[in-house]
Structures are given as C-alpha cells and as structure tokens.
Amino acid sequence: MCGIFGVYGHRDAAALTQLGLYSLQHRGQESAGIVAVDEGGRARVSRAMGLVSEGFEEAEMMELKGPIAIGHTRYSTAGASAIENAQPILARVRHGHIALAHNGNLTNAVELRRALEDGGAIFSSTMDSEVIVHRIARAQAKSPEARVAEALEGVEGAYCLMVVLDETVVVARDPHGWRPLVVGKLGDGFVFASETCALDIVGATLEREILPGEIVAIDEHGLRSIKGTEGAPVHRCVFEHVYFARPDSKVFGGSVDHSRRALGRQLAKECPSPGADIVFAVPDSSNSAALGYAAQSGIPYELALIRNHYIGRTFIQPTQAGRDAKVKVKYNPVRELLEGKSVVMVDDSIVRGTTTRGLVSLVRAAGAREVHMRVSSAPIISSCYYGIDTPRREELIAAQMTHDELVRHLGVDSLGYLSLDGMLAAMPEGPDGYCHACFSGRYPTAIPLEPELLRAGGGPR
Ligand code: SF4
Description:
By secondary structure, this protein is an alpha+beta fold. The chain folds into two domains: 3-235, Aminohydrolase, N-terminal nucleophile (Ntn) domain (Glutamine Phosphoribosylpyrophosphate, subunit 1, domain 1); 255-433, Rossmann fold (3-Layer(aba) Sandwich), CATH 3.40.50. The chain contains 18 helices and 23 strands. β20, α13 (354-365) and β21 (370-375) form a beta-alpha-beta unit. It is globular. Residues 178, 237-239, 384, 386, 388, 435-438 line the site of iron/sulfur cluster.
C-alpha cells in the first residue's frame, strides 16, 4: 500500500507535495520521495528511507523547483524495503523523462517483467511499478495519455498512477478501481491525491474521483480525460473503509468516518454484549467503529486504551517475550476505567492475532473482569494481491482456527466478528462494487501464478 500525491500548475508544487505526503503517511512509512519538474522541463528527484518528516533536507527541497511535482509514500507489497525501491521512479528516456508514482499491486508483474528482460530490458529495482515505466518508454502513441494507455494494455491488477512525461502529468486508475484517487483544484492549478485528507492540508477543493479505468492528462493545453471502461464491474477495496484510509477522508465518494460508525452500529446489532460496562477502541483506526458500537448499544464509550504515537518505526525489543513487549510499547491501558469491569474491546480487524492476544492480556492485567472482543469486519481468511500487504493464508489466524479455538487462543470471554453481508451493507454506496476477497476468498480476477516471486518483485529468475 502506498500514498500518491501530485500538483500541476503551482509555483510551490514540491513544497505542497511534501505537505500532501504528510497527510498520506499512514499509507506507507518505509520511504518517501518527490520528483519536481521546473519551467525548463528539467526533472529533479529526492527520495529517502523513512518518514516524510525524516526524508527531505531543506537544501534538497530548495532544489525541487517548478510548477509540477509528484510524490509517494511507500509500504512495500512487491519488492524489498530498500532505497532503490523508493518512489517516484525517475528515468531518462528518448523522449525526455518519465517519472512515476504507483499505488497498488500488479498481478501479472512477474510475467511482464520476464517478457521485458527477455527483450533486453535492464531493471534497477525489484518493484512491480518499474514494469510500467519500461512499457511507457516503449509505447509508440503520440500523446502522453495515449502512451500511458498503450503501456497499460495487458497490465493486470491494482494501480493508481501519477506519471510525468516531460511537462505533462498523466494520472490513471485501473478499471477495477481497487485503490482511491481524487482530483482537486488549487487556484489555477490541479492537485491529485490518494485521499481527500491530502487535499485538505494544501487547501485544495475536491473536484471529483478519478473514475475506474480513467486516464487524465493535464498540460499547457488543459485537462483531458480518456474514460476507458464505463459500465465495467468495479471492485473497490472494502478494507480502505474498514482500516486503511484516514477517517477524515472521503474514499470512493463516501466519508470513512461515516462508514466506520456504520460498521460499528451493525456490529452492535449482530454481536451485542448485554451487561457490559464500557466499550473502548483499539486506537486509532477503530475509534469510529467503537463510537458506532457504543451509540447503537447504549454502552458508554471510554478511552480505556492509550496509544503511544511517538515510537518511530523501530525500537529495540527487550529480550523478554517479544509479543508483549511490542504491544506494551505501543499501547497502555487506563486501569481506573477497566478495574472490575466487563468490557467490550472493538478492533477493525484481526490479522495474525498476536497484537490482539497481547492487548487482551494487558487489559486483563489492568483489572478487567470480562473481555468481549468485537471486530468491525469479517474474519480475514485470504491474502490480498491488490496492494495491501496481508500475510500468507497460513499466517492468518482466522483461516487456521475455529471460533472456539480463537476464543481460547486470544484469551477472551467472547468473540464477535461482523458478517460479510453486514460489512458490505455499511459501505457508503451500498454493498455492490466492492472487492472482499481477503474476507470471502472470492477473488475478482485471476491471482498471481507465483505470489512469492511477486512479493519479491519478480526479480532475477
Ligand atoms: Fe482490499 Fe481485501 Fe480486496 Fe485486497 S483482497 S483489495 S485488502 S478487499
């Protein structure tokens, strides 16, 4: 998963892009980068490992001049976490330059890469995204948007792209629409972003979503759109609303906060907790769902678990049991709220179960009498191949244990998951048009032939 942001037609394009990336930090913390193009058509890049706040030196930012910029925050799903895999990619080609930022995962990247390598292409990273750069470089069409469209023929899987071809910005969203992408206005310029919270930070006004299958180009001749797949079935990622996007964003046309509260209300209807004293969230992504649960059930909402926001990306793990230590560094319970109580702990999802188990033991150690776990999504039972880094099925706890085994393993008094139908019913535009493969195992497309090779980036055979 990644965040992408772009500006066309503003003299502070790179500085605005840096601001936008701050708002998209939750979509990727491994590396961040910006490519800016100045009025003479010269492209410059700055990329670094780590957070946006750590990545850009002031002197470097001063060099990123011009009215065009695109940026990227990375969370690796294909290719290792390393500086050569930081984006945007910047390549010099016969036409000039290609810069590219990608959010998503190409399901046929391994095959596409092999075909390019067999033709002599040399890759400088292990990212699936580099395949698209090669294909754009080879495209013969005349206009920038037609070149991108030509390059994307035969590319399968999830992509939201921001591409700069010389002095034209081209953005594209795959026909299934797995990942979100919006366009906004800022003065005479345009801003593109994965989520609307990144428009807010730069003061841009939301214009609209980029449609599934749409390619939009903007340059001195204005904004043009190719709408490729109108009427085709879409598969927006339901997990964006459940967990990934920020609650202050509108995603796929609907408020994330609203959908999470609706998930929480539905969860309270399907899995009530009669007699419980308080409801609390596993912060932060579950806050809105827990508020919805509390509102529906009438059980008081409390801030019984506090998250430490200042940990940074890594910390030295003490030798004592890693799991508990990790959870304790991130969360601390409020003993005064928990002591002697029957509590409802709301989380948005359970993946491996290690964090949940650690949290339950913390909450019990803080004096909770009963712990009732409620999850505002269906059980995760399958891997994602469309841009979210869920583990292999063997590591997904709900795929490996029965309900009773899970109750015992997590150490809870009861466990309630939202049903798949209930989850989809809570989506802003109703239950249709969503991908739910990780919850249902029903993949909307063919899945990669060699998933492990895809994770590794389809590198050398
Ligand atoms: Fe989203 Fe799950 Fe579909 Fe992946 S498999 S796109 S996480 S709903």
